[in-house]
Amino acid sequence: MDLSIVIPLLNEEESLPELEQWIHRVMTEHHFSYEIIFVDDGSRDDSWKVITSLRKQNPNVKGIRFQRNYGKSAALNEGFKLADGEVVITMDADLQDSPDEIPELRKMLLEDNFDIVSGWKKKRYDNKLTKNLPSKLFNATTRRVSGIKLHDFNCGLKAYRRKVIKSIEVYGEMHRYIPLIAKWSGFRRFGEKVVEHRPRKYGESKFGWSRFVNGFLDLASIMFVGKFRKSPMHFFGFWGTVCFFIGLAIFLYLTISKFFFEETGLAARPLFYVALTLMIIGTQLFLAGFIGELISRNSPERNHYLVEETLT
Ligand code: UDP
Ligand code: MG
Fold first, then answer.
1. What is the CATH number of the domain that holds 84?
2. Does the beta carbon of 93 lie inside 6 Å of ligand 1?
3. What digits encode the pLDDT tens for the residues 289-308?
4. Which end of the chain is more exposed for a tag (fewer CB within 10 A), N or C?
C-alpha cells in the first residue's frame, strides 16, 4: 500500500464527507493505493455514523472509535498502530489541511530520503493574537531546545516513513513533539514543505489558549525526560550530593568555630539554617534519584532498542 492517511477527529461530522471525497479524488488522480484511518476521539456528534456510512461507499475507509475523548496524541497513536502504508500521512479533519499537498509530501519524503516531512503553515488563517504570535514563540523555543530546524512543529499535516511511526509512541499531549520523539529513536532527516492552510469551515477549534501553557510545560518535561529517563540518578544524584556536601561543609565550619574558637549561639546564625536546609534538600534529591532509578529499572522500555541491521 502506498499511503495511509491517519485523521484524528473530535466532533467534525460536517467536514468528514467533503474530506473523504477530496482525498479519494487526489488518490485516484495519482493512482495511489491507500487507506484512510479515521480515529474518532470520543465525538459526541454524529461523526462515527458518518464514518460508518463513508466506509460503505469506499472500502479504503477505516475507522477507530474511542469510548471517550483521550486527546489527539492518543488518537494518532492508535491510528499509527493500524497504519499499513509505505508512507503515513497525518492530517486534521477540519479541512484546514489540503489533501492536494499529499502527493508532493510523499514525493519529497521518498525522493529526498527524509524520515519525516513536516508541513509549514507559512500563511495561517487563524485568529491572529491567540494563535499566530504564541505559535511563533513556541516554535522558536522548540527549535532551540530540540535542535530540529522546523518552523511549524504543531502542523497537523506531516508525512512519515512507515518505520518511523512504527518505532515511536505518542502519548499525553506529545503530538506537538513527534519530530522530537522521532529524533530520540534515531531518525534525523527532517524535511519541511510550505503547505496551504485554510480557514476552518465548520465547527470550532478544539484547543483554547491553554494549549500554550500546556505546550511549554510539555516541552520542559519532554526535554527532561529525554535526557534523564534512563538515568535519573545522573541528575538528582549529582545535585543531591552537591547540596549535601555544601551543607556539610558549612556545618563543619560552624562546629570548628564552636569548639576551637569558642563561639556561642550557633543555632541563632543564619548559616546554621542554610546548612541544615541544604543537607535535607540534598538527601531528598538523592532519594528522588534513587527511587527514579528503581522505577526506570522496572520500566518495560528499559531494553527497548531499535536495531537497524544485524549480521549473523
Ligand atoms: N482533535 C482530536 N482530539 C481532541 C482535540 C482535537 O482528535 O481532543 C482533532 C480535531 O478534530 C482536528 C485536529 O485534532 O481534526 C486539530 O484540532 P483543531 O482543528 O481544533 O486545532 P487547531 O486547528 O485549532 O490547532
Ligand atoms: Mg484546525
1. 3.90.550.10
2. yes
3. 999 999 888 887 777 777 87
4. C
With contact defined as beta carbons under 8 Å apart, do 21 and 104 qualify? Answer: no
Q: How far is the CA of 82 from the centre of ligand 2 (A)?
A: 23
Ligand 1 atom 23: the closest Cα is on which residue?
A: 205
Overall number of domains in the chain? 2
Supply the pLDDT for residue 158.
97
Three-state secondary structure of 157-213? CEEEEHHHHHCCCCCCCHHHHHHHHHHHCCCCCEEEEECCECCCCCCCCCCCCHHHH
Parent domain of 261: 233-297
Whole-model pTM? 0.85
Q: Is the CB of 78 under 6 A from ligand 1?
A: no
- Distance between CA atoms of 284 and 278, rounded to whole angstroms? 10
Q: In terms of Cα–Cα distance, which of 235, 269, 230, 263 is closest to 250?
A: 269
